[in-house]
Amino acid sequence: MMFPLWFLQLLVVGGLVLCGIGVLMLIAFLIVDSKDRQIW
Amino acid sequence: MIIAAAPVLSPSAGYVMLVLFGVLWIGLGIWWGRRAKSYDGFAVAGRNVGLALGTATAVATWITSNTTMLAPQFALQWGLWGALGYATASFGLFAFAPMSGRIRKLMPTGYTAVEFIRRRYGMAGTIPFLIISLFYAIIWLITMSMAGGKLLFVLSGIPYEVGMTVVVVVCVLYTLFGGMYAVIGTDFIQSIIILVGLVVVAVAVLMHVDIADVHQELSVERPMLLSVFFPAAIMSLFNNMLFSFGEIFHSNVWWSRAFAMREGVGPKAYALGGLLWLPVPIVAGFLGLAAPALGIGISQPDTVGPLVAATLLGTGGAMLVFVVVFCSLASSIDSLLAATSDLIVNDIVEPVLPGRAGSQAKRRWSAIAIVLLGVLAWSAALTSSGTLAEVLFSAGPLVGSCIWPIVCGLYYRRASPLAAALAMVFGSAVGLTVYFTIGWFVASLVGAAVSGLFFLIGTWISPDDFDFDSLAGTSDELPTEQDEFELAGVEQG
User: Fold this and answer.
1) DSSP tally for chain B: helices H, then strands E
2) Residues B117, B120, B126, B128: what is their CA dihedral angle, to the nearest 10 degrees?
3) Which of B7, B291, B392, B459 is the most exposed place for a label (fewest CB within 10 A)?
4) pTM, full prediction
5) Mutate to test the interface with A, among B62, B282, B308, B331 (most CBs of A within 10 A)
6) CATH number (domain holding residue B375)
7) Host domain of residue B257
């Protein structure tokens, strides 16, 4: 029994989307932290 | 079509990239190092790191060059389970999230994991734990240094010895100047570069080959890689998960960040860090799975990821992969240098020095320790042989045996010194035996299981009744008068 194609697609596309969201999230956190002077 | 797997970046381009990023990291290290006036600043960044840098440092530190180089290798050798197995290492970050909050609360002025073990279990637990911690940190440093040399050689033909040396020297220099401020600050930039670079490379690969083609090629030529029932691979999944638990729970790399983050930030930062890390080995692993469909010849399995990207994307792809892996290397090497120097200063040097060491004295010792660690990693990487996986996974059973002593030590007052010592010694011994007789893919699993059994026996024979409040009340590093003098730049006669 093999992993179906849709599962491989889900992993790869889902992974890419999560990586992209991660970048946006980090930048958003930095902006919020800098507004509150809480970076360090 | 068979595509030649030769370096696609010229050595001169490789040297230019090395110089550019080397100067950038060292410059940032000097810039942020101005904040590190006291040992608290140098070692734990003033204990006030916010959510953005806290999350980024968890992600960047855990994305080692092993993630970007070994995850594709795992996928190529163990199939989809290999990539999924590597992704389970993120569970370690999720599990450490609540622990980081408790660590910060129990030891508001702490510096190291060994310090916790010393106060919690005394010398019986400290000796095996310190040996395991140092062994693991040095193995990790060596694998990172070796990966640096390999990467530069594969991508640009720069001799292994030269590339490895430059990577180690750059990391030593900026950690030396900036301490934890530089480590965490550069981690933010490095995490952004790694995530963006990975997305760009993966999308570019998808423009050359469709996921359906990869699936079709694997179904026909290598069906085992898509098999749902791949016993050894499934076993490696649980092994990786326990390895990551052991790595994160015991390593001062993660404890020092827990101490550095502002109160309340640690649990959120580690949980979000795990979420952002989770897709990285899957996306990187896809590069390994795509290699057979693309007809790319692989001479060294642990360089399959960079080779796929570099071969498909040409010079631009090679440069991008170069930057991504260089960032992965730097973000881990700097963390290891800083955290391991903390261990050396607080848990080896300070206890044997007469009197209490002041802030500036500890900072000087940290600098010496960072340089010595760099020299040690460099010399070992120069003479080491074997694949990255073989070197790295020899530490698996050792760190796996630390899981129970750490977790129960933080939450369970009955956990005793005898239980912790038995768990670490027997878990490591049996796990290492299994590593050499059966294989790395079950060693951590066995190490953790045996350790758990002996921890239970030890607790049953000799239960403790520990007062957790004593962890905060007996800090080794409350400010002293000498510290104040030194901070003010006044020499004592």
Assistant:
1) 24, 0
2) -80
3) B7
4) 0.89
5) B282
6) 1.20.1730.10
7) 11-383
